[in-house]
Amino acid sequence: MKSRRVPHFLTISMLLFIAPLANAQTIVLQRTFIEKYKNRATIDGTFIVDKAHPRPNSSANDGDLHAAGRSIDVGLPMVAEVMNAAGTSQADVVRAIHANQGNATAVPISGVWRIWFEHPSRQPQIQFDDVPPAGNTNPDHCFEIHPITAYAGKPILQSLQEINGFTPKDAESAFGRYEKLSASLEIDDQTVTITSKQVGFNYVKFIAQLAGKPDSLDNNDAGTLDGQVVLANVFDNAGDAVLVNNVRLIFIAGTGPAQALTNSLDGATLELLALPRLDLNAISTFIDAGGSGSVVRKLPYEMIVVGAKNVDGTP
Amino acid sequence: MFGLPILEVAIGLSFVYLLLSLICTTLNETIAGLTGRRADLLEKGISSLLGDDPDLKKKLFDHPLIGSFEQTKNDRPSYLPASKFALALMDIVTGDKGAANDAGALREGIKTVLKPALRTSLLAVLADSNTKLKTDQEKIEAWYDEGMDRVSGWYKRHTHLWIWILAAVITIGLDADSVHIFKTLWTNQAIRTAVVESAKRRSQGERPEALMPLVVHNNQNAPKTGTAVAPHNNDVLTKEETSELKDLLVGWKDAAKEWNGKTGWELFGLILLHILGLLFTAAAVTFGAPFWFDTLNRFMNIRSAGRAPDEPRDKSRPAPATA
Questions:
Q1: What residues of A are in contact with residue B214 (Cβ under 8 Å)?
Q2: Rounded distance, CA B174 to CA B171, Å?
């Protein structure tokens, strides 16, 4: 038989997935940004509040306060959200956000960076292009600071906890969806263009068993601990069978969930409340290994843990 | 673990059929993409829905709501959501008489703008008393979805035909004679062992239709590191798999050498057997890569070296890392 090279798998992948991606969101990220934040839990910078909800969502509707605006550190249309804002415990920060709304003042902000294709735009969003002021509280965006951990110098790390009265998504629905998501990546020397379909499934509650030891995420700019990352196996709703293995869980330093992780023994089982986000570490690893050009793969994701408790008696 | 030769031959044959099916699927999708098969059938389906009215079809495809689904300015969409179709159609039909969702303007437009056959269809659609469909837009969307079910049926039939054609072309082109492959696997233990090892690696990978991850985390104590999955390898088959296929397939030159000097019934018998072997391979390839992947896994499972694809994962066994 003559030696035959089969056609390029890339072409096929693109053809197979172009149609489903037709109504997808495209973002263009700078590779320097990916490298900076691939092993970071949070982002620090300044934020101009263009529009904010007058009141936080009710607890039954997740209890978040949305503020749309701009950040020169992000360079994309974005929103920032305060968790558990429905009560009075975050009242100072909510007031500060409202006070700054529309005055074009760049105010210091810290919080968890989050890229997720939840509010797609028809037009590609290119990082560090001009970002116009937001026209409403929920503009087309796929970048969020969610949850905010500090605003205008006021830390609100304690806001990362269970949301009383709110029913999060269940593990089987949410992870079933995440696992089916595909992403088209175009990699060049400066940028990575990522296209994926719209997806929600924001807050999800699930049981996870730690699969290995946590590793620290460092804020090298500030010389402080930013958080921890650990791999875990996610279980179905009944807690009987593994749905997904080796999911990256991100814990934010100084929060209750991070303390719960510190208290956990190897292989501990935790009940978690978490938000999904794009896994920049996976994209960076792929590029470092020589990945280039265009590929269609599973959307790489990791989970930001905002609520945690041990369920196996670990102190 | 046991390694019965007949079981290893079965593994080898399943593996070869899997690889040939992968090549077949790849070629089919390439041709579908190049020829715009999906877009053709979508256009044909929409044209049929619109009563084969070329002017109306042109207006619909030129509508800004539809234009955003085209890959390039000159391309046609290969996918169109029901909501966009319904809104664009309503907008065209209502024209200047009112907003797209103005019920009165819509009905007036249907009576004046559309040709009789489509007029009758659309008025019947809007008169649908199904309580689940509350708005005119929802009713038109449901009508469109039913039409697209028909398009899906067309696409499946087209694909099936193309798979048969490509299976025959690949089998004849590569001279993939099942009888010869069986003989080689049965008599040559070195090749058989190498093929079974390669089959084992393939069976432990993702199902053929599954998307690959960018990275897998194979060191659970190092969550910041991972192994990139095939960053360079965009080919359907690995080098080893290509090499094993070469060892197993006879090739037309070698077949001709085998027939050289033979005459009469002996030659007829050899050629007939060769043709039967080719027919068997072509038929096997049409079963598709997922079928052969599952079959391969079942054989590997019997050999205690693989996991049946439908076997539930337990907590103590590592499953493929994904996230």
A1: 185, 282-283, 285-286, 291, 295, 297-298, 300
A2: 5
* Chain A stretch 167-186, residues whose beta carbon is closer than 8 A to a beta carbon of chain B: 178-179, 182, 185
CB contact under 8 A, A285 and B214: yes
How many residue pairs from chains A and B have C-beta atoms closer than 8 A? 167
Q: Over chain B (323 residues), what is each successive 10-residue block's mean pLDDT?
A: 76 92 82 74 87 86 71 58 83 83 85 82 84 81 85 82 92 90 90 89 73 84 88 68 80 76 83 90 90 89 58 40 38
* The two structure tokens encoding residue A129: 């292009």
Q: Which of A12, A286, A292 sits opposite B214 (nearest CB)?
A: A286
One of 3.20.20.70, 2.120.10.30, 2.30.130.110, 2.40.50.140 is the CATH number of A169-310, namely 2.40.50.140
Give the torsion sign (CA, A109, A110, A111, A117): positive
pTM exceeds 0.90 for this model: no
What is the ipTM, given to two decimal places?
0.85
DSSP secondary structure letter of residue B235: B
B323 closest CB neighbour out of A241, A247, A297: A247
Task: Compute the nearest-CA separation of A213 from chain B (Å).
Answer: 5
| Residue reference for tokens 């619909």 | B60
Residue limits of CATH 2.40.50.140 in chain A:
169-310
Per CATH, is A25-159 categorized as 2.40.50?
Answer: yes
Q: Note whether A168 and A206 are within 8 A (CB).
A: no
How many whole angstroms separate alpha carbon A63 and alpha carbon B119?
Answer: 49
